[in-house]
Amino acid sequence: MKKRQPRKPSQTAAGSKRGRLLLVATPIGNLGDLSARAARALAEACVVACEDTRTTGVLLRAHGIETPMTPYHDHNAERARPALLARIEAGEIVALVSDAGTPLIADPGYKLVREAIAAGHEVSALPGPSAVLTALVISGLPTDRFLFAGFLPPKEVARRRALGEVKGVAATLVFYESPQRLADSLADMARVFGPRQGAVARELTKMFEEVRRGTLDELARHYAEAGAPKGEIVIVVEGPAPEDVAEHDVEALLDEALDRLTLRDAAAVVAEATGMPRREIYRRALARGKKGG
Ligand code: SAM
Predict the structure, then answer these.
(1) What tens digit of pLDDT does each residue of 193-204 get?
(2) Nearest-CA neighbor of 232 among 53, 100, 107?
(3) Are 27 and 46 in contact (CB under 8 A)?
(4) Which atom of ligand 1 is nearest to the CA of 176?
(5) Which of 121, 182, 210, 212 is most buried by a 10 A CB count?
(6) Is 280 helix (H, G, I), strand (E, B) or coil?
(7) What is the DSSP string of 162-211?
(8) Which secondary structure element, helix H or strand E, spans residue 252, and what is its range?
(9) Superfamily (CATH) of domain 9-129
(10) CATH class of the domain comprising 132-241
(11) CA torsion angle for 92, 98, 102, 107 (degrees, to 10)?
(12) Which residue among 212, 232, 235, 236 has the greatest number of ligand 1 atoms within 8 angstroms of its CB, and so is best to mutate?
């Protein structure tokens, strides 16, 4: 194998050292999904901060990358963050990855990014795989507006409350879920959301990729009978029927739109977002006494 050059910190045109933080998306299962740009960035970085050096080690080795790794995960982040920021300050390129997909998406990294920005460091993202978008586009449900709701609380009461909070959101909903809780979560969704369509996307980009579509009730019954499936799972749920969009959501959307748009444009935007007739929204906006433009 080719001998690697000693690593150099990045240089500005003026020759002074300029460190930066790179947020590098990695595959969600298929190692071939690492982009050429991501591979180059990981090879050129001074260090790869990762959740699990064994997991990321497999990826780096598969691409012949020898960059040293350092752990950055939920349990050491408070301690590890100052050291990473100091390395950036000293002119190093720090690449942040997670076990899979895009770092910061249901994964560590948000505070590191926030503090790097606050310290005036350059932060770049190298986009790539994420289970949210992969599941959304494969679900067959509307993609024009969606809400990524992350993981639901594991306990039933908190889970139903969390579902109630997003019930009126006029958008396709995307949740990450564990196989063990899948059937219970689907049953709660059927109860809270009613008869909506859903899709369960499992093992995306991997050999046993599977997408099961149906009403939430059908999906809940299937997984209750079949038992917990193997692998990683995303649940995608159709948004509410227009008449079910919570009244306060329509009013809140209208308030927000009227703050920045003419009455006519605000009505168009809110009608599009809620699926309600534009004439009805226009009538409501007029009733608020704002002049058209
Ligand atoms: N950062 C990742 C991303 O960008 O998608 C997500 C990390 S989160 C800790 C892990 C969760 O993502 C899994 O529990 C599952 O819900 C979802 N996930 C990750 N890879 C997946 C895959 N190949 N198929 C289905 N879901 C996946």
Answers:
(1) 999 999 999 999
(2) 100
(3) no
(4) 16
(5) 182
(6) helix
(7) HHHHHTT-SSEEEEEE-GGGHHHHHHHHHHHH-S-EEEEEESTTSTT-EE
(8) helix 247-260
(9) Tetrapyrrole methylase, N-terminal domain (3.40.1010.10)
(10) alpha beta
(11) -110
(12) 232
CB 276 near ligand 1, within 6 Å? no
106 within ligand 1 shell (Cβ under 6 A) = yes
Q: Specify the amino acid at residue 170.
A: A
Q: How many whole angstroms from 42 Cα to the centroid of ligand 1?
A: 21
Residue 254 · residue 284 · CB < 8 Å: yes
**How far is Cα 80 from Cα 130, in angstroms, rounded to an integer?**
25
Question: Mean pLDDT, to the nearest integer, of 153-164?
Answer: 96
Instruction: Enter the tokens of residue 242.
Output: 């227009």
Angle, CA 120 vertex, CA 114 and CA 121 arms, to 5°? 80
Share of the chain above pLDDT 90, in %: 76
Q: Please work out whether the CB of residue 101 comes within 6 Å of at least one atom of ligand 1.
A: yes
Distance (Å) from CA 148 to ligand 1 centroid: 12
Q: Give bridge partners of residue 21 from the DSSP assignment.
A: 94, 123
Which of residues 1 and 216 earns the better pLDDT score? Answer: 216
Break the chain down into helix, strand, coil percent, rounded to 5: 45, 20, 40
For residue 164, pLDDT beyond 60: yes
pTM recorded for the entire structure? 0.85
- Cα pseudo-dihedral 103, 106, 110, 113, rounded to 10: 10
Q: Which atom of ligand 1 is nearest to the CA of 151?
A: 16
For residue 67, give the nearest of 27, 28, 96 by alpha carbon. Answer: 96
Tokens 């586009």 found at = 137
Largest CA distance in the chain: 73
* Beta carbons within 8 Å of 261's beta carbon, 6+ residues apart: 269
